[in-house]
Request: fold
Amino acid sequence: MKLPTELFQAAAEYRDWISSFLRIGEELVYLSQDDVKGIPLPPERVRDLVEQSLIAYSAKKTDMPSKIALHPLQDTFFHAMPAYVPELFAAGIKWGSCFPENRRQFGYPQAQGLIIFNDQLSGMPLAVMDCKYITEIRTAAVTYTAIKYLAPRDAVSFGMIGCGVEGRQHTKNSMTVLPNLSTIYVYDVFEDAADSLIADLQPGIGAKIVKAASYEELVKNSQVIASATIAKEGYDPVIKETWIEPGKTILLCEGHTLYEDAVFKRADKYIVDSREQVEQFVLYGYYPFGHPEIYAETGEVAAGTARGREHAGELIVGNNFGMAVEDMFVVRAVFDYALEHGIGARLPL
Ligand SMILES: NC(=O)c1ccc[n+]([C@@H]2O[C@H](COP(=O)([O-])OP(=O)(O)OC[C@H]3O[C@@H](n4cnc5c(N)ncnc54)[C@H](O)[C@@H]3O)[C@@H](O)[C@H]2O)c1
Reply:
């Protein structure tokens, strides 16, 4: 994808603006985890940026090859995630990883990595930044967008499976997108994670957060269910198809790991962030029974070119495995703020 001619002047002006803060080609900005986290990005801005990124991707206004992966140990991965967004003059790559045993083994988070952000007119690196917080907030914002278009807006119950980094962000977002919630069920195989989520988040949330005793209790009682646990290889589902009533909205951060395959095959609408990426993941073995027929991409539903929820009885599954364009939209905002406010260290190239 090439920079449209009409944007060339604006791209040159953006580069001039960057040059007033940074010697492009001689140095780059390094943003640590704390630097990135300290940048004031209101949640509604992040949600808006992420929705725009989903729409731009599905409208084919971005250049984003499917992520390529390495799988060094069982259930682990590195993903190389490049994206170019012409309208934002943003190009870069995330090198992210997920090692589910990290917390137990080393005390590290499961998901981490770095992002390189480049000048699109010269290709020079402009910044290297931690990706943990960006991944955290943009992933929850994808689920937020999916809920907005796929769930009944008057839903009174929400279930969160996995109470880690993503589970917390998802739970925080849930009341904003579903203002009538009266109960939020949470479940985690590591019970302390559920307990500490409740202790930390309950004071700021109007709905009652209830620790579910089992997957079954959570699934049967929640109209909208999100999960962020571990992307597992192989097929060992813990959620039975018979527990799933019509009308539920099921949103996945870790692919098909938790549910029996029949849930996906039975869905009235099966929606993904990227059709192309799903095909790539078939090659990695994530869909041993093949993927269900894809009704639409999340960005098509958000743009209104495909319908979201049409009636209360629909079973809708949204499988959003994550896209580099989501990162790039947030990265551009982070980079601009950091530059303008002198945040981060300057490193020579
Ligand atoms: N789709 C995306 O764009 C995207 C982005 C980031 C992370 N993720 C995925 O989200 C998941 C969670 O990431 P995180 O950063 O929140 O990790 P985390 O380690 O902070 O939290 C995961 C939580 O899930 C719990 N858990 C693990 N297996 C479980 C199971 N079978 N049932 C219930 N709970 C279980 C763990 O005890 C932990 O508390 C990972 O699979 C990661 O790959 C997806």
Remarks:
- The first helix runs from residue 5 to 19.
